């Protein structure tokens, strides 16, 4: 007799938690009059001349697959961009892969480097996909907690305390989602010293590099001797306001890049062709719009950070990206309770900090990629909510 299975879903996937960001986004979508500071994406539309290039590529009938690693013309632009902006040299033919968003770059990086049981150190609070992608690749994610009192930067002794024989890589992100923290050159040098000492790879998620408010942004691969140990992840979603195009890239030394390309060719084959044509234009001529967007985000950051501090929710000043991560510990609520009650009572959607890791508890993530009028109204409502808790 055939006995039926309990479920066809693998044990690993059934144990995977859905993203906590989506949950709040979906909840808010079902309500009227909600101001959403929830989802992390630019509120700008992709510049018109960039969209036009995609249209032109369609008109010309460029509708076939591109090479697995992406159009060579785009890889050349990416290599040039990496050199011009971050002072790192990559060979466009062998060391650059155009991916389906930074998301697929993170995924192929993990699948490429991990054997079962290998450990990756993940600095939390962090983007929600890091831990699951390590686990789905058969590795073990070992989390370390960056704290607000340290500006959400990890201390070298914290890294030393969790490093084992199985540690293969460390995952970092600067500017960070959700904290906005930007690591200085000195911070990166500290991580470099640690990586050399333990012979580790560093996976550096630099998707928010364009949205660094400090002129002195440093790419991890630009740190002395680090290029050879770095898998550098970047993309077009944030800086160029192109989330829906699903286009990212990954740069790494040839041996690792070629290995990642093997995974990518079976996983996704190549990124969208029209998006790649648009990205060439974005890199060639998109600088004025990027600068304008950064200027606008900086103004909004100043407003929202000041507002949180004024209402007694201590908020550190983010050096980049478009997130404020104020502490809500003074209210006595958990981050889930705060976010749920704020949504019910005042119709403002934020993301509870605990979805980004243990040290995210006691915080909420507010994306300020929303109009200044929306932000002003959201601040009024959050203030009213916080005051109602004090009564
Ligand atoms: N890394 C970080 C830190 C992010 O915040 C995001 C998007 N929220 C991604 C990667 C994924 O970006 P993409 O749209 O390029 O897949």
Automatic annotation (TrEMBL):
Tell me the cofactors it needs.
Answer: pyridoxal 5'-phosphate
**Entry keywords, A to Z:** Aminotransferase, Pyridoxal phosphate, Transferase
Q: What is its EC number?
A: 2.6.1.-
State a single Gene Ontology molecular function: transaminase activity
Ranges where the Aminotransferase class I/classII large domain occurs: 33-382
Out of the domains of life, which is the source?
Answer: Bacteria
Task: Establish whether keyword Transferase is in the entry.
Answer: yes
The record ties this protein, via Pfam families, to: Aminotran_1_2
Q: Is Transferase there in the keyword field?
A: yes
NCBIfam families given for it?
A: PRK07682.1
Entry similarity comment? Belongs to the class-I pyridoxal-phosphate-dependent aminotransferase family.
This chain's protein is named Aminotransferase
Q: What organism does the UniProt record list as the source?
A: Kurthia populi
Organism classification, top ranks?
Bacteria, Bacillati, Bacillota, Bacilli, Bacillales
């Amino acid at each position: 007799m055939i006995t039926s299975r309990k479920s066809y879903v693998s044990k690993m996937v059934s144990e995977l938690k859905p993203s906590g960001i989506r949950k709040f986004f979906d909840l808010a979508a079902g309500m009227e009059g909600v101001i959403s500071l929830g989802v992390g994406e630019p509120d700008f539309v992709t510049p018109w001349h960039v969209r036009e290039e995609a249209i032109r590529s369609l008109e010309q009938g460029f509708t076939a697959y591109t090479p697995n690693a992406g159009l060579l013309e785009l890889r050349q632009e990416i290599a040039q961009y990496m050199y011009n902006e971050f002072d790192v040299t990559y060979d466009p033919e062998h060391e650059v892969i155009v991916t389906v968003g930074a998301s697929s770059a993170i995924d192929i990086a993990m699948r490429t480097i991990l054997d079962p049981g290998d450990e990756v150190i993940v600095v939390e609070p962090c983007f929600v996909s890091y831990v699951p992608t390590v686990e789905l690749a058969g590795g073990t994610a070992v989390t370390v907690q960056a704290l607000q009192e340290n500006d959400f930067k990890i201390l070298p002794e914290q890294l030393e305390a969790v490093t084992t024989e199985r540690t293969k890589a460390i995952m970092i992100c600067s500017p960070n989602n959700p904290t906005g923290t930007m690591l200085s050159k000195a911070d990166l040098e500290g991580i470099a010293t640690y990586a050399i000492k333990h012979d580790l790879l560093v996976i550096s998620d630099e998707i928010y590099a364009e949205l660094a408010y400090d002129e002195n942004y440093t790419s991890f691969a630009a740190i002395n001797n680090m290029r050879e140990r770095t898998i550098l992840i970047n993309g077009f979603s944030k800086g160029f306001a192109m989330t829906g195009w699903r286009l990212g890239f990954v740069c790494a030394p040839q041996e690792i890049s070629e290995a990642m390309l093997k995974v990518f060719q079976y996983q996704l084959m190549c990124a969208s062709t029209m998006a790649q044509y648009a990205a060439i234009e974005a890199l060639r001529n998109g600088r004025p719009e990027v600068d304008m967007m950064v200027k606008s985000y900086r103004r909004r950051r100043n407003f929202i950070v000041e507002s949180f501090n004024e209402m007694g929710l201590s908020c550190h000043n983010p050096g980049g990206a478009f997130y404020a991560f104020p502490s809500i510990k003074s209210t006595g609520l958990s981050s889930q309770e705060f976010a749920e009650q704020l949504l019910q009572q005042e119709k403002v959607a934020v993301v509870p900090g605990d979805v980004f890791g243990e040290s995210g508890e006691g915080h909420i993530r507010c994306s300020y990629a929303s109009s200044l009028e929306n932000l002003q109204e959201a601040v009024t409502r959050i203030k009213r909510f916080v005051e109602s808790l004090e009564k």
